[in-house]
Structure formats: C-alpha cells, structure tokens
Amino acid sequence: MEKKLKDLDKEALEKIKKSNDIERLEKLQVEFLGKNGKVTAVLRGMGKLSPEKRPVVGKLANEVKENIEGELKTRLNELKKEEEKERLKKETIDITLPGAEVSRGRLHPMQLIIGQLEDLFLRMGFSIEEGPDVETDYYNFEALNIPKNHPARDMQDTFYVEGDFLLRTHTSPVQIRTMEKQGPPIRIITVGKCYRVDELDATHSPVFHQLEGLVIDRGISFSHLKGVLIEVTREIFGEEREVRFRPSYFPFTEPSAEVDVSCFKCQGEGCPLCSRTGWLEILGAGMVNPRVLEMSGIDSEKYTGFAFGMGLDRMAMYKYEIEDIRHLWDNDLRFLKQF
Ligand code: PHE
How far apart (Å, rounded) are the C-alpha atoms in residues 157 and 169? Predict the structure, then answer.
C-alpha cells in the first residue's frame, strides 16, 4: 500500500508537470483526489490494515494528498501567469500606427462671411435685426419709394405669393420695419435671403443673400457712409484690394452709389469675369431718401441717415475666388472641404 501511494504520488507529479492547460489540471485533480480518485481509493482501503500500520500509511497518504494538492496549485499559478503574458502580448497597442481620421465638419463659406461681417458690425456698435422672407408690397416697394410702374415690380422680376404677398426682392424692407418699430437713432444690420426671378447661371441665382445696413441720427452725412463701407471692404478683402464709389440710382436713397472692388482675377487689368472693366460690384448704398424717412414717421428736417445693401453671394465669390455661384449650393464636399 505504501508503494502504491508513492507510485501514485510520482505519477501525479509527472502528469501535473506535463499538463499545459488549466482544464487538464482540473481533470488531474479529479483523477487523483476526487471522490472516486486514485488516492481516495487507497485511503478507503485503509480499514483493512492492521492497527499498527494504519497511522503510518495514514500519515503517508495525507502527505501524498497534500503534495499533489500543492503541485496542482503551483502548476495552476504558472499556467495562469503564462496565459496572462500571452493575453498582454496579444493586446499590445502599437502607438506608432497612424490614428483613424476623424472627419470634422466646417462652416459653409456663406456662414464664414456672414460671421465675419456680423462681428465687424457688432464691434462698430450696430445691432442685428430680422425681417420676414414673405413680405407685403408695402414694405418691399411702396414704403421704399418704388413707384407702381417701376420695372422691379414686374412679374418677371418678383415672385408673387398671393394677393399682396411676395418673396422679398431685397433686405431693404427691414429698414422700414425698424424705422416704424424703434425710431431714431438707428444703427442696425440685417442678413437674409432674397428672391428674384433669375435664371440660374454662373453669376445669378433666384435665391441669394444680402446684408442690409441702416444708420439714422442727427448729422449723419455721406462721409459716415463712406467710412463704414471702406472699413467693411478692408475687413473682407484686405487692404490691397481697391475700392471705388460710383454714382448710381435707387428710389429709396438720394444721392446713391454703387461700390466696386478691383477684380481679383485680373487685378484690375480687365477680364471676362469683370466684363473687362477691372471692377466687381459688391453693394448699393446712399443717403436715405427724405420721402422714405417721412413715410415711416421720421422727421427728415431733424434726421438724416444712410443705408446699404450688399450681395453676400457675390462677396463670397470675390473673397474666396469662386468663379461659379452654383458651387456655393451644390453641396459638393470636394468644394466645401476647401474652407
Ligand atoms: N436694395 C438694393 C438692392 O437690392 C440695395 C440697396 C440697399 C441700395 C440700401 C441702397 C441702399 O439692389
């Protein structure tokens, strides 16, 4: 019996050493020490031994049992450590690999130019007003001194909605709404969409954007208008681009001017983009016509003012050197990603 125990001990130790996974160890545990295990079987047979032998064999059996248990535990720990090492090796991260590219959204060029202009005007003490896209004939035309027979009212130029309603053809109606609402002094801008019956081509779109400005106070003169507009063109186009004021006509301003910047494409030499003039038109402006002030309840003897309206799509084209207005609204990522 003693020999048998020693043989079992040896057998178990060898098998434990050779086992390469935890599952195998568990099986060995059952094989030797389980309820029907080999060592257990020997212990069960102890009843047949003589009383003198019993304690000797019992002691040995316990030693063998403890020994096997100990070995199992040691091997288990070894295997666990190896497994952990393998796992760590597999999970190693190569921090020198390039990361996955995160594609970030960005502002549309129109938003960029609007943001830049709003910042500038806010710094100059202007506040921002809003007006509806669907206007009445009164605010879009009548109150701006645009007579009934004016060509702008033509069905060919204006989108009429129904009855008296139309899609505003410019942001100037916000001038009238502001004058009615708050009275002088006034220093506001407004930004928004305008609509005209235009064929879509490289330089025209039936929906476009304007930024309108209105300043009314005592003693406002044309030189104030000039100062503000020169500041704006400098901010948007830089000091290098030349600016010129050209006499013009609008029913709601007197005197009126149009403002041009030197052509970005030919640097003023003359090319197809600027119709060989060397200049690109960006805005209309002038001193608010006294009749317009009076119609909105402002005393034109006491107050004077100026107004201007800029074509933002055109300005974005000239600033970012975009040759076709349609690029702005095509939503082509190859274009949009450049800003
Ligand atoms: N409303 C004019 C246009 O759309 C621009 C303008 C605004 C001109 C204010 C003078 C003063 O063409």
Answer: 8
